[in-house]
């Protein structure tokens, strides 16, 4: 245990610090495809009863019209976050007719590419902008890749804790600059160690053959409808999933906030030949927002993002520059198909431990060699994480994944205990013990369990996933959501429709004029 880590733990173990630590914030964004009860992708519009996908704060769509996204408020306790996510699921399932929510991250059998519906957000200028952005994603990466679902886990440390640490370290930077620097340090450690999350929680070792659309691959045949890799943990996070050749040049190593924001600003304004060949418009039709490496900053496919709540019409990168980092968003979490919400409290407790560990542990700047090594470690684990004696690179030397994993989990014991003391529970330490069990026995990992269930039931990936989806729909319908909560979400839906109508009625310029102004601001 490093001296810095020990000193920070000791400082936060004091009663006044423990009282503040309970004010960490935890939020979840969970994506899920709507499917028919036979497992086919729903081609229906976003259900009106769920509200406006443009203006609803809790229920929206991500890429496809069928890809729902549930967004919780940030809560001081992960248990509250999961409770809200449960409410959203229960309300949704009673308002999507005969459809259900797809249980895993990877889609099942997909229709032809052209039939996959892109999200619609109404006729307002801001709604059309969201639609054009998704059209751009379609022409750049294809619609199929945009049907992948995941969980984004949002986490923040109370500002009072950052102030306490800043004062203890006699750091002369402003509070905002110190906080941003410490979040960037957290992200550096996340880059170093996030392979561990892929081993422990990766749940996409197989996929439906329709996902590849005839592309070349190195997967093995599980059955006539399913491809897989025997030791894979998360094909979603492999080069088959969220990858982009255009983005290969923007790999910020998070050594400071300015280098990160500069790299994104550059990518949003740098033309990319393949996208220039597609064109920005075809006649009067917008095909993509621009022909640059990124249309907007959020197109950058990173495993973690520094975040700041934006003001009206403010771009994410401008919010970071103006007011610093407010929280982080871990984006590499697979949906666990065995869990009705795709995640449970034990996993959330461990994620809290892992993220706080990343925040408190030493985080030296990433060297030129460490950046590619971190990327290679991550990709090795997503493709072959359960392979016996898998070797990773740590500080320029080879180490088995199991040895390194045990070392990290052992170091996290103190962080788990710290959180247990703050929340007067033992759940963080218990969650950590479950992960140690997985490190000792790969068969306990979700990725291994997915393949084991498919073999036991002699079913394809899509058949397994549909069975889980129907089972979760049944689980989440009993008991039904209580009347008061139903009324709450019905009111939110109605308010969101009114808000969208108001936006559409108050536009003062054409969409082309709106886009001219939007692009000039970029």
From TrEMBL:
Functional pathway? Sulfur metabolism; glutathione biosynthesis; glutathione from L-cysteine and L-glutamate: step 1/2
Record keywords:
ATP-binding, Glutathione biosynthesis, Ligase, Nucleotide-binding
Keyword Ligase attached = yes
* SUPFAM superfamilies, sorted: Glutamine synthetase/guanido kinase (SSF55931)
Query: Which EC main class describes this enzyme?
Result: ligase
Xref: Pfam families? Glu_cys_ligase
The answer to whether the entry has keyword Ligase is yes
Task: Tell me which residues make up the Glutamate--cysteine ligase domain.
Answer: 10-380
Matching InterPro entries:
Gln_synth/guanido_kin_cat_dom (IPR014746), Glu_cys_ligase (IPR007370), Glut_cys_ligase (IPR006334)
PANTHER family on file: GLUTAMATE--CYSTEINE LIGASE
Q: What is this protein called?
A: Glutamate--cysteine ligase
| Native source species | Denitrificimonas halotolerans
User: What gene is it encoded by?
Assistant: gshA
């Amino acid at each position: 245990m490093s001296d810095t880590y020990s000193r920070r733990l000791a400082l936060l173990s004091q009663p006044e610090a423990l009282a503040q630590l309970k004010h960490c914030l935890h939020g979840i964004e969970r994506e899920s495809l709507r499917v028919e009860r036979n497992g086919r992708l729903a081609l229906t519009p976003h259900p009106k009863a769920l509200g406006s996908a443009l203006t609803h704060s809790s229920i929206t769509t991500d890429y496809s019209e069928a890809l729902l996204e549930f967004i919780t408020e940030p809560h001081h306790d992960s248990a509250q976050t999961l409770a809200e996510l449960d409410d959203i699921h229960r309300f949704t399932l009673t308002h999507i007719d005969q459809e259900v929510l797809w249980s895993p991250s990877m889609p099942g059998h997909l229709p032809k590419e052209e039939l996959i519906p892109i999200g619609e957000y109404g006729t307002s200028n801001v709604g059309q902008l969201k639609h054009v952005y998704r059209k751009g994603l379609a022409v750049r990466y294809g619609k199929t890749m945009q049907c992948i679902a995941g969980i984004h886990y949002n986490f923040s440390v109370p500002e009072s804790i950052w102030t306490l640490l800043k004062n203890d370290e006699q750091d002369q930077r402003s509070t905002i600059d110190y906080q941003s620097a410490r979040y960037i340090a957290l992200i550096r450690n996340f880059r170093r160690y996030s392979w561990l999350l892929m081993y422990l929680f990766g749940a996409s070792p197989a996929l439906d053959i329709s996902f590849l659309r005839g592309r070349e691959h190195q997967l093995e045949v599980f059955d006539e409808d399913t491809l897989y890799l025997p030791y894979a943990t998360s094909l979603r996070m492999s080069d088959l999933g969220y990858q982009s050749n255009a983005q290969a040049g923007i790999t910020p190593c998070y050594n400071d906030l300015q280098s990160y924001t500069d790299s994104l600003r550059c990518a949003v304004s740098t033309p990319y030949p393949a996208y220039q060949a597609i064109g920005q418009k075809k006649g009067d039709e917008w095909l993509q927002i621009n022909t640059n490496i990124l249309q907007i900053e959020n197109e950058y496919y990173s495993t973690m993002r520094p975040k700041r709540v934006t003001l009206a019409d403010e771009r994410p990168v401008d919010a970071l520059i103006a007011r610093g980092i407010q929280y982080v968003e871990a984006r590499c979490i697979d949906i666990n198909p065995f869990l009705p919400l795709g995640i449970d409290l034990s996993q959330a407790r461990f994620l809290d431990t892992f993220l706080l560990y990343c925040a408190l542990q030493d985080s030296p700047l990433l060297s030129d060699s460490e950046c590619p090594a971190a990327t290679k470690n991550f990709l090795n684990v997503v493709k072959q994480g359960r392979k016996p004696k898998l070797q990773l690179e740590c500080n320029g030397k080879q180490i088995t994944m199991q040895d390194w994993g045990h070392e990290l989990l052992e170091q996290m014991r103190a962080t788990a205990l710290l959180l247990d003391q703050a929340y007067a529970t033992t759940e963080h330490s218990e969650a950590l013990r479950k992960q140690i069990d997985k490190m000792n026995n790969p068969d306990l990992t979700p990725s291994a369990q997915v393949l084991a269930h498919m073999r036991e039931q002699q079913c394809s990936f899509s058949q397994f996933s549909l069975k889980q989806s129907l089972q979760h729909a049944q689980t989440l319908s009993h008991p039904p959501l209580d009347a008061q909560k139903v009324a709450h979400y019905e009111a939110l839906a109605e308010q969101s429709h009114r808000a969208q109508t108001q936006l559409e009625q108050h536009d003062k310029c054409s969409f082309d004029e709106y886009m001219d102004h939007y692009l000039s601001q970029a």
